[in-house]
């Protein structure tokens, strides 16, 4: 029988394991789970000071809400990212002086010519980029992916400092006692917009930091199988799960033994999810992204130069365009969850084409 997200959060809390890794597709409920876990471990009670309640740190989509843009709509020149006042950023910037470390992390993962500049109060950030032989360009607005990366770098620098402070086992000897009661760190999908090399590096760095931590329990959720697999191999003493949402709105948290390839055969799971959607005629836009992922993984394993090489020959260009259009959110109308009936039929046809062909017969002795 399925469980509520609060019951899933309670299961994670009761596990008493240093590291728990959760794999789930986007839209299943990872962010909501992190919020439920935070409310379970440290509910906000009226009249209590926030810094007395730090039992859990979490990084998720809500973390990015601490930062928002002032686009200077009147002058269209002084664009800046505003930081909402909070204890954590004040501590990392003002008390610990980690501005340069954050900038270094950010430039490493993005562009060494792209520079964040903090004002004296650490309440806003402007960005400039070196122009090479031309003049520098100031007050630019960075991309959403770069913004997410910056927020992660702030959180990661905070986490580095917390781990360093807590490495002193005797609380009376610590420089700061703000995190003495910290028990859990919940991280949901850190910077999935990174390229594969940087995503691997991020997973390795996070794994190293987790291993260095003293007395903290980590829960890390992701929809990225590469990030999941690297972190799996970096960390010992862990439990791995697959989070699945049922049709009745309940959830299952299934324990898995091994990384995503070995424990739940990622491509088989994709086929299962897509098949369930086509059988119940509950296809949504995100299923096209999963279909493309399945084509990419199959083509990569079988040695095809392009995933589109696996499409039916008679309408290859048309089908390629359909998958590209429905698996990328570049146009406003793509936010609509329900595809048209012709689009649904296309997904069914392309899934059946992949399953009915000899592609998977070719990998009977291997694993896509």
Outline the fold blueprint.
Blueprint: H1 5-14, E1 19-23, H2 30-41, E2 56-59, E3 67-70, E4 80-83, H3 87-95, H4 99-109, E5 114-118, E6 124-129, H5 144-166, E7 184-188, H6 196-212, E8 217-222, H7 225-234, E9 238-245, E10 251-256, H8 260-263, H9 266-279, H10 286-302, H11 316-326, H12 341-356
Parallel strand pairs: 1-8, 1-9, 2-7, 7-8
Antiparallel strand pairs: 3-4, 4-6, 5-6, 9-10
Description of the molecule:
This protein is α/β, with parallel strands linked by helices and 368 residues long. It folds into 2 domains: 5-65 and 89-94 and 145-262, 3-Layer(aba) Sandwich (Rossmann fold), CATH 3.40.50; 265-363, no CATH class. Helix content is 42%, strand content 14%. The chain has 12 helices and 10 strands. The protein has a 6-stranded mixed sheet, sandwiched between helices. The chain has a 4-stranded antiparallel sheet with strand order 3-4-6-5.
Low-confidence stretches: 328-336, 362-368
- Report the major sheet: 6 strands, mixed
* Strand ordering within the main sheet: 2-7-8-1-9-10
CATH class of the largest domain: Alpha Beta
Here the CATH topology of the largest domain equals: Rossmann fold
Q: Which class best fits the helix and strand makeup? A: alpha/beta
Q: What percent of residues are in strands?
A: 5-15%
Give the radius of gyration: 23 Å
Integer count of domains:
2
The rounded distance between the terminal residues' Cα atoms is 31 Å
Q: From N to C, what is the helix and strand string?
A: HEHEEEHHEEHEHEHEEHHHHH
């Amino acid at each position: 029988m399925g469980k509520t997200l609060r019951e899933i959060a309670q299961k994670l809390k009761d596990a008493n394991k240093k590291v728990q890794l959760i794999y789930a597709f986007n839209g299943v409920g990872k962010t909501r789970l992190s919020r439920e876990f935070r409310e379970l471990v440290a509910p906000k009670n009226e009249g209590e000071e926030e810094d007395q309640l730090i039992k859990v740190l979490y990084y998720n989509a809500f973390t990015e809400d601490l930062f928002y843009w002032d686009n200077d709509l009147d002058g269209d020149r002084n664009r800046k990212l505003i930081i909402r006042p909070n204890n954590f950023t004040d501590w990392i910037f003002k008390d610990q002086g980690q501005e340069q470390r954050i900038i270094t992390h950010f430039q490493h993962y993005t562009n060494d010519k792209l520079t964040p500049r903090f004002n004296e109060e650490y309440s806003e950030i402007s960005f400039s980029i070196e122009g090479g032989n031309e003049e520098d360009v100031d007050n630019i607005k960075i991309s959403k992916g770069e913004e997410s990366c910056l927020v992660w770098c702030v959180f990661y620098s905070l986490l580095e400092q917390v781990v360093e402070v807590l490495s002193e086992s005797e609380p009376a000897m610590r420089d700061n006692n703000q995190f003495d009661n910290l028990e859990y760190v919940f991280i949901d999908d850190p910077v999935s917009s990174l390229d594969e090399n940087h995503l691997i590096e991020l997973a390795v760095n996070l794994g190293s930091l987790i291993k260095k931590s003293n007395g903290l329990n980590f829960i890390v959720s992701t929809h990225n199988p590469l990030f999941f697999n690297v972190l799996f191999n970096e960390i010992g003493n862990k439990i791995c799960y697959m989070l699945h949402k049922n049709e009745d709105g309940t959830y299952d948290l299934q324990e898995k033994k091994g990384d995503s390839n070995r424990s739940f055969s990622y491509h088989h799971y994709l086929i299962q999810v897509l098949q369930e959607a086509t059988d119940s005629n509950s296809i949504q836009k995100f299923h096209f992204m999963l279909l493309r992922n399945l084509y990419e993984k199959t083509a990569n394993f079988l040695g095809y130069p392009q995933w589109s090489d696996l499409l039916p020959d008679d309408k290859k260009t048309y089908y390629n365009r359909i998958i590209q259009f429905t698996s990328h959110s570049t146009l406003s109308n793509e936010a609509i969850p329900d595809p048209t009936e012709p689009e649904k039929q296309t997904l069914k046809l392309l899934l059946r084409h992949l399953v009915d062909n000899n592609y998977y017969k070719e990998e009977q002795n291997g694993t896509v």
